[in-house]
Write a structure and sequence with these properties.
The protein is built from eleven helices and ten strands. With about 260 residues, the chain is α/β, with parallel strands linked by helices. The strands form three sheets. The chain has a six-stranded parallel β-sheet with strand order 7-6-1-8-9-10, with helices on both faces. A two-stranded antiparallel ribbon has the order 2-5. It is elongated. The two termini are about 20 Å apart.
Length: about 260
């Protein structure tokens, strides 16, 4: 097998470069199911424009979210956060042009507040950047918030490209988002490695465009369950922490891969 040198590394953002703890959000009951959500903060902001009761607000937003999830997770098209809240305002009959932007800010402030940074990732990316181009290829519904997270984590100086699904219009594992990242990097798929925590979106998506993929399992609670529910291509390598990545990249450059179950 011909071994191609690694000229670029792409990273997923959430639960790869930074960790997202949505379980820190308030727990609410929506359609009889307990879930952690920004709904209480959104309803409080909405009350500045309408006196809609929480139950009515939650029911309408839950319906909007169900429709959005079908688009996002079946068709793999992105539904921007602002579009989600514009639909909510229309269905509630609230005529306030500023409302979608207000709700987007409220929602994203809470989500960003659930992010934790990993201090050793800054020197790690600084070291990797001396040898390869680096980028982010991530699913997220609001690109400005993703950029804010990257900046706050101190990672921006070491990233040559940042490709977010809201800007591209489609979500991983669709090939278009990976192809856009490769176009911006200026590297071929064979020269690029993608690192992410989601088997279907990151590993399967990258493999579909002939990129080697590294599966990071730091935030994967049950490895067996994740593997049992996945029927796509296996990762070329697996790491528990990004600190292990340089060694794995060296292994991949020498043509060594998992070659089977991770």
């Amino acid at each position: 097998m011909r071994v191609v040198a690694i000229r670029a590394v792409l990273f997923d953002l959430f639960d790869t470069l930074v960790d997202l703890h949505l379980d820190r959000l308030p727990e609410v009951s929506v359609r009889g199911r307990r879930t952690h959500s920004t709904y209480p903060f959104l309803h409080a902001a909405l009350r500045e424009h309408t006196d809609v009761p929480f139950d009515r607000f939650a029911e309408v937003l839950a319906q909007v979210d169900a429709e959005s999830h079908r688009v996002m997770f079946v068709e793999r098209r992105e539904v921007p956060t602002r579009e989600r809240f514009a639909t909510l305002a229309t269905r509630l009959g609230v005529e306030a042009p500023e409302l979608p932007d207000l709700l987007t800010r409220v929602h994203m402030d809470q989500v960003v507040g659930c992010v934790t940074m990993l201090e050793h990732h800054v020197p790690l990316l600084a070291s990797l950047h001396q040898k390869a181009r680096l980028g982010v290829c991530s699913n997220f519904t609001h690109a400005p918030a993703a950029l804010r997270v990257i900046r706050d984590a101190g990672l921006a100086p070491y990233l040559d490209v940042v490709v977010i699904s809201e800007d591209v219009g489609v979500r991983k594992p669709r090939p278009e988002i990976f192809e856009e990242a490769l176009r911006q990097l200026g590297t071929s798929a064979a020269e690029t490695v993608h690192v992410g925590d989601n088997l279907a979106a990151d590993v399967g998506g990258a493999a579909a465009v002939d990129m080697r993929a590294v599966w990071i399992t730091r935030r994967v609670n049950d490895l067996h369950a994740a593997l049992q529910g996945y029927a796509g291509p296996w990762p070329a390598a697996r790491v528990r922490d990004l600190a292990e990545l340089p060694e794995q990249l060296d292994e991949l450059e020498q043509g060594r891969t998992l070659g089977g179950r991770a």
